[in-house]
Specification:
Shape of chain B: elongated
Strand order of the largest sheet of chain B: 3-4-5-7-6
Structural class of chain B: alpha+beta
Strand order of the largest sheet of chain A: 2-3-4-8-7-6-5
Largest interface: A-B, 38 and 35 residues
Number of helices of chain B: 18
Oligomer: heterodimer
Distance between the termini of chain A: 49 Å
Helix content of chain B: 40-55%
Number of strands of chain A: 9
Strand content of chain A: 25-35%
Number of strands of chain B: 12
Helix content of chain A: 25-40%
């Protein structure tokens, strides 16, 4: 029995390491579990699917564009429940602090906002500045789209307001719900669909 | 010679003439008037009297769970098999969704609350409180550990599988995070299973409890699938984890034979000596001491907190009682805490080094018994150590003082006073200290004082410690007579300066609590009475010993407690239990 247990554990770990398709290396294993906009050309990323299920009306899903995410930032505090999804970006220089918190909900509550030209087609962008002083910047960017709203809560420290804001806006993006639904349908040979068929409860 | 053969069949001791064996005499290896039994050496490879092992079913659960998880991981790693599983899951969830009605949905929403964090929190903390009230710390630690382990394993598996909620059906219930395995099912099952194994006594109640858990978890699973929060494989794997981890944890760390669930009040130090352990004790004493055991009974539990005392009736002419003390890991830990507490409270008065193993602890007791007996102190004759579970449980067996009464209940005349004082004189002469002189440890039998419970005995103690032994003996004797009378008798064996030193050394904290309580009940300040009798009032000897080590230890303890509280709070919070 004692000889068998380590063997079982080794096989279990090996099995776990195999993971999902397209995650042949340890880096891929971790990336596949982050809110990335696509992984190896596939948008059927588990967290995007989960976010789509959390806010079933949302036509857009927030995500991290790995191609534009600089090495200074890491994704943390991923939390998804029915009605709400959230993740954060932390600077590697200050891991105890969420510089950006991205929240997806069906609706947003605005403060004093200004509409600005959107960097994403079909999505309205509103900006809110709460505080700028002595090298700190606090504010929010709201993106409004059909069936949902995404808020970037910004809290930058360290005296560099413009550069991190530019980094973040570039590294965060959207994937359409339709694209995720299509990927699920394609991967399953048409057997699975993200959302209930029309008229189905 | 004290030990004589009678007819070649029995060993007998003439009680009043008994004296310890000299260097040329072999020590008796068998109790007095005891019929010899068959000694048996346990051969290599044979299990000890009470082996520590998982139940067979526990092992199979562990192996089966491991295999299920391996197979499952492989199945979900392959696209074809994963889709087949998803198809099957989907079919069930969609079939259930076809049954949805407003009323049924309300019912299922209510059942869904079984797996809510608040339900789990209420069940969890209620169990913790019950286990604390009944001081079943072993069960408490296993309960907390098993449930937290299930939550941790669930978190790992959820991350590994990263499986979204069921597709193609409207999700009606509340949910958090990935679906596989189902957290509500895993955590509710684990909590209920842990409650069952820590609260329900073995037998019919536990069997019924298993049935009830099956019904509750089944209902929750059905509700989760109906509401499309989880699919069948989510709840299935959740249930497997929730059952296996507590089951194996309790069978491994708190097996019922060793730590039965009972609701008797009593010292947490006392282990159950019935059931499998009782049988093991019976056979182990027979095999290892070569006697024929007729009966094993708990004895004097209220007077002992550091071990589980018992009486053993062995075959003889007539049948004879032996005294035995069972020591286990819990007693070792109690001894460690006791010594740490003394160091923190009083500083380092004397040797407060804790024991590392149960074996060393019983070796100390057996050694102390032999030392006392060899020094001619009227103390129980040691008959040796019996192994129950290697490195975990041992029994120290000694002579039982039949027809003896505690000195607190005996008539104390000059002869008894002299006898008690003579014991201290003998300890001093032998360079020993008893360190726990109190009424419960002084028995009077046939007009002689006998000293028991020599566990704390110390070789070459500090003069301060010897002086405290004398003072405590005089105080005990005075509780049954008067300070004047005891002082007069003491002067026959001790010099005035020795008696003065004794009362300079002793005060509240150096007196055993039973002795303090007795004096309080009598409304007498015997310490002051003795001081008054002394020709010259001695300057008190400082008891509190301050050292860098003690201060460091105190600061360390405070920081450790704070750290543990904060860590536990953070862990419970992240596990959703706060």
């Amino acid at each position: 029995m004692r000889r068998l247990l380590p063997l079982v554990l080794v096989v279990l770990l090996a099995g776990c390491a195999m993971g999902a398709p397209g995650e042949q290396d340890a880096g891929g294993f971790a990336v596949w579990r982050q809110p990335v906009c696509e992984f190896q050309g596939n948008v059927r990323v588990p967290l995007l699917v989960l976010m789509a299920q959390a806010v079933p009306t949302a036509s857009q899903l927030p995500c991290v564009d790995l191609d534009h995410l600089t090495a200074e930032w890491i994704v943390s505090d991923v939390f998804v429940r029915n009605g709400r999804a959230r993740f954060a970006l932390d600077s590697i220089h200050d891991l105890d602090h969420h510089a950006v918190v991205v929240v997806l909900e069906r609706t947003c509550r605005f403060g004093k906002v200004t509409r600005v030209p959107s960097d994403h087609p079909g999505i309205q962008r509103y900006q809110e500045v709460s505080e700028i002083h002595s090298g700190e910047f606090r504010g929010a960017i709201h993106y409004l789209f059909r069936g949902g709203c995404v808020t970037y809560r910004l809290d930058f420290r360290g005296g560099e307001q413009a550069r991190p804001l530019g980094d973040v806006v570039l590294a965060l993006g959207f994937v359409t719900r339709d694209a995720v639904a299509a990927a699920i349908r394609d991967d399953s040979g048409g057997r699975l669909s993200l959302d209930p068929a029309a008229g189905r409860r | 010679m004290a030990i004589v053969r009678t007819g070649g069949e029995f060993l007998a001791v003439e009680p009043t003439l008994r004296h310890p064996p000299t260097a040329t005499e072999p020590a008796s290896a068998r109790p007095p008037r005891v019929a010899p039994g068959r000694r048996r050496r346990r051969p290599s490879g044979e299990a000890p009297p009470l082996p520590r092992a998982l139940h067979t079913s526990g092992r199979w659960w562990l192996v089966a769970t491991g295999l299920v998880l391996v197979v499952w991981t492989v199945v979900l790693s392959n696209l074809t098999t994963r889709l087949a599983v998803l198809d099957a899951d989907q079919a069930v969830v969609q079939q259930l969704a076809e049954l949805r009605t407003a009323a049924l949905t309300d019912v299922m929403q209510a059942v869904h609350a079984l797996g809510s964090r608040w339900t789990i929190r209420v069940l969890y903390w209620a169990t913790v409180i019950v286990l604390l009230v009944f001081r079943r710390f072993r069960h408490l630690f296993v309960f907390v550990g098993a449930t937290l382990l299930v939550i941790a394993v669930h978190a790992i598996l959820v991350y590994v599988f990263a499986r979204p909620r069921p597709y193609g059906v409207e999700i009606l219930g509340d949910w958090t995070g990935f679906a596989h395995p189902s957290r509500p099912v895993a955590v509710l099952t684990a909590t209920l299973m842990s409650m069952l194994y820590s609260l329900a006594p073995q037998g019919r109640i536990r069997q019924l409890g298993k049935l009830a858990i099956g019904v509750l978890v089944g209902a929750l699973s059905l509700a989760l699938m109906y509401l499309a929060v989880n699919s069948p494989t989510d709840v299935g794997i959740g249930a497997i984890i929730g059952v296996t981890i507590p089951l194996v944890a309790f069978r491994l760390l708190a097996p019922n034979e060793v730590f039965p669930v009972t609701y008797r009040r009593g010292s947490a130090a006392h282990l159950d000596i019935g059931g499998r352990r009782g049988e093991a004790i019976h056979h182990a004493i027979e095999d290892q001491l070569g006697v024929q055991v007729l009966e094993v009974k708990p004895f004097g539990l209220s007077g002992s907190a550091g071990s589980t005392p018992m009486r053993v009736r062995v075959k003889g002419d007539p049948d004879t009682w032996l005294f035995a003390k069972l020591y286990a890991g819990s007693h070792l830990r109690a001894d460690r805490w006791y010594k740490l507490g003394r160091t923190l409270l009083y500083g380092r008065l004397e040797d407060e080094k804790p024991f590392n193993t149960v074996r060393r602890l019983v070796q100390q007791e057996d050694y102390a018994l032999r030392l006392m007996y060899g020094a001619g102190v009227r103390s129980p004759e040691p008959f040796g150590v019996v192994e129950i579970t290697p490195e975990r449980e041992y029994i120290v067996v000694t002579e039982f003082f039949d027809n003896a009464v505690e000195i607190g209940d005996a008539e104390v005349d000059d002869a008894i006073i002299d006898d008690g004082l003579r014991i201290i004189r003998r300890l001093w002469d032998a360079g020993l200290a008893h360190r726990d002189v109190k009424p419960a440890n002084l028995l009077v039998r046939e007009g002689r004082v006998h000293m028991i419970d020599v566990f704390f005995a110390e070789v070459r103690p500090s003069p301060w410690r010897q002086a405290v032994d004398l003072a405590n003996m005089m105080l005990v004797l005075a509780t049954r007579s008067s300070a004047e009378r005891v002082y007069e008798r003491a002067k026959l064996l001790f010099r005035d300066d020795e008696i003065a030193e004794a009362f300079a050394a002793t005060r509240g904290i150096t007196m055993p609590s039973q002795l303090r309580r007795t004096m309080r009940e009598q409304g007498r300040d015997l310490h002051a009475e003795f001081l008054h009798l002394l020709p010259e009032r001695p300057a008190p000897i400082a008891v509190q010993h301050w050292s860098v080590r003690r201060i460091g230890l105190m600061i360390g303890m405070v920081l450790l407690v704070l750290f543990v509280v904060l860590l536990a709070a953070s862990y419970f919070k992240s596990a959703g239990l706060l």
